[in-house]
Write a structure and sequence with these properties.
Layout (H helix, E strand, L loop, with lengths): L8 E4 L54 E4 L3 E9 L8 E8 L12 E5 L11 E4 L3 E9 L8 E8 L1 E3 L2 E3 L3 E5 L11 E4 L3 E9 L8 E8 L8 E5 L11 E4 L3 E9 L8 E8 L8 E7 L11 E16 L8 E8 L9 E5 L11 E4 L22 H7 L18
Antiparallel strand pairs: 1-2, 3-4, 4-5, 5-6, 7-8, 8-11, 9-10, 11-12, 13-14, 14-15, 15-16, 17-18, 18-19, 19-20, 20-21, 21-22, 22-23
Length: about 400
C-alpha cells in the first residue's frame, strides 16, 4: 500500500553513447528473436573509435540534466521504451501504481501512460489507460498477436481491494495496440499467484508465439513462499491459464528470460527479496528454472545473494564468450548494518549453473529499505533528503525496476 502527496514525476536522462541495433538471436544470447520487427532499445557503442575501458580504470559517463515529465498518475513504478506508433521514433510507456491517492492510499486502479516521442529526446503529453486492476507493478511490450503492432502487458497486484489492501490473485492486463500509438481497453488474466510483481515476454516453446512469465510475491494466500507463473500464448493475443512453479525465499520481485545452458531453450531467472518471512537482515535468493522446450520448466535451483533485499535480476553475456551471466541488485550490501546497496555478478558456466557471486558495492549510501508489500504495512515517509544524505536506513517507496536504454 502506498500513500503520499499529489505530485508524481519521472525523469529522462540523455546518454551520448547509446544507439539502437535490431535485436537478433545469437548463440547463447539472452535476447529472443524478434520476428515482429518491433524496435526495442539496446545499449551499444557509437563510432568505430570507441575503445574498451582498461581494467581498473573508472569510466567517465556523463548525462545531460534530467528532464522531468508528469506521468499523470500516482507513483510511477515501471517504464519501458518502444516505438509504439511505428514512426521510427522511440516512445515511453510508464506504469503508475494507481491513478490517484484517495483516503490516504491508492484506492484507484493502476494506469499506463503512453508518451509519444518527438525524435529529439522530448515527448508529448501522456495519454493514460486503465490497467483494469489495482497495484500496477510492471510493464512490458511485445507483439502478442503477430500483426507487427506493439501491445502492452502489465502486472498488477489484484482485481479488487478490501479496504486499503489487495484482495485475490494477481492480475495480468493485456492492452492490444492499434498501431498509431493508441491502445485498446485492458483484457485481464489471473496471474495464478498473489500480487503479480514483474512480467517478462518471450517465446518459450520456439513456435513463434509469445508467452508471458510473471513473478508472484506469494504463491497463495498463506504467503509462505513466492512463485513464478507461465501463461502460454495462443498467437492471437490471448493466453492460456497460468501454470505456477513454486520458489524458495520470500517475495519474488523480478523475473528474466534467457538461454542459460546454450541449448536454444529459454530458461527463467527469478530474484526473491530474502530467504524467509520477515526479511530482517536476510540475504536474497536467485532462482533458476531450466526450460524443457515445451513451455514447462524444471524445479528451481537456488543461488544465495550476499546482499539483503534482492529485488532485480538481469541477464547478459558479460564476457563475450557466448555464455549468459546474471546481474543482481540488492538494497543493502550485506555487511552488518551497512547503508550501501550492492550489485552482484554471477558468471555462468555455460551449463545453466553459476559461479559464486562477485559483489560490487555502491560508494554512496543506499536510500533505504522497502517494506515487503504483501505484509500490508503503512508506507512511512521520513526526511528523505536528510536521511539519504546521511546514509541512514529508512522505509521508502519502490521505484521503477528496469530502465532500457535507447536513442530517444
Amino acid at each position: 500500500m502506498k500513500s503520499s502527496g499529489s505530485i508524481y514525476t519521472f525523469s529522462v536522462f540523455i546518454f551520448a553513447t547509446v544507439m539502437l541495433v535490431p535485436p537478433a538471436a545469437q548463440p547463447g544470447s539472452a535476447l529472443p528473436a524478434n520476428p515482429s520487427g518491433i524496435r526495442y532499445a539496446r545499449a551499444s557503442p557509437v563510432g568505430s573509435d570507441v575503445q574498451p575501458i582498461p581494467a581498473r580504470q573508472n569510466p567517465h559517463i556523463k548525462f545531460a540534466s534530467a528532464v522531468a515529465y508528469d506521468s499523470a498518475g500516482a507513483f510511477a513504478d515501471s517504464v519501458t521504451i518502444a516505438d509504439v506508433n511505428r514512426d521510427g521514433k522511440m516512445d515511453l510507456v510508464v506504469l503508475d501504481y494507481c491513478q490517484k491517492v484517495e483516503r490516504g492510499y491508492c484506492a484507484t486502479p493502476g494506469t499506463v501512460a503512453v508518451m509519444l516521442g518527438n525524435g529529439d529526446g522530448t515527448f508529448q503529453p501522456p495519454v493514460s489507460y486503465s490497467t483494469g486492476a489495482y497495484w500496477a507493478n510492471s510493464v512490458a511490450v511485445g507483439d502478442l498477436n503477430g500483426d507487427g503492432i506493439p501491445d502492452l502487458v502489465l502486472a498488477n497486484g489484484c482485481l479488487s481491494l478490501s479496504g486499503p489492501y489487495c484482495s485475490g490473485a494477481g492480475i495480468i492486463s493485456v492492452l492490444p495496440g492499434n498501431g498509431d500509438g493508441t491502445f485498446q481497453p485492458a483484457v485481464i488474466y489471473s496471474a495464478g499467484g498473489w500480487d503479480a510483481h514483474s512480467v517478462a515476454i518471450g517465446d518459450l516453446r520456439g513456435n513463434g508465439k509469445l508467452d508471458l512469465v510473471v513473478a508472484d510475491v506469494c504463491e497463495n494466500l498463506s504467503c509462505q513462499a513466492p512463485s513464478v507463473s507461465v501463461l502460454l500464448g495462443n498467437g492471437d493475443g490471448t493466453f492460456q491459464p497460468a501454470v505456477n512453479y513454486s520458489l524458495s525465499g520470500y517475495e519474488a520481485d523480478s523475473v528474466a528470460i534467457g538461454d542459460l545452458n546454450g541449448d536454444g531453450i529459454p530458461d527463467l531467472i527469478v530474484a526473491s527479496y530474502c530467504q524467509g518471512g520477515g526479511c530482517e537482515q536476510d540475504t536474497g535468493v536467485v532462482g533458476v528454472l531450466l526450460g524443457n522446450g515445451d513451455g514447462t520448466f524444471q524445479p528451481v535451483v537456488n543461488y544465495s545473494s550476499v546482499g539483503w533485499y534482492t529485488d532485480t535480476v538481469a541477464v547478459g553475456d558479460l564476457r563475450g564468450n557466448g555464455i549468459v551471466d546474471l546481474v543482481v541488485a540488492s538494497e543493502f550490501d550485506g555487511r552488518g548494518d551497512s547503508p550501501r546497496d550492492a550489485v552482484e555478478v554471477l558468471l555462468g558456466n555455460g551449463d545453466g549453473t553459476f559461479q559464486p557471486e562477485v559483489t560490487y558495492r555502491h560508494s554512496g549510501p543506499s536510500c533505504g529499505r522497502r517494506v515487503p508489500e504483501d505484509r500490508h504495512k503503512e508506507w512511512l515517509h521520513r526526511d528523505w533528503n536528510r536521511k539519504c544524505a546521511a546514509g541512514q536506513r529508512r522505509w521508502y517507496l519502490p521505484a521503477a525496476r528496469h530502465i532500457p536504454l535507447g536513442r530517444l
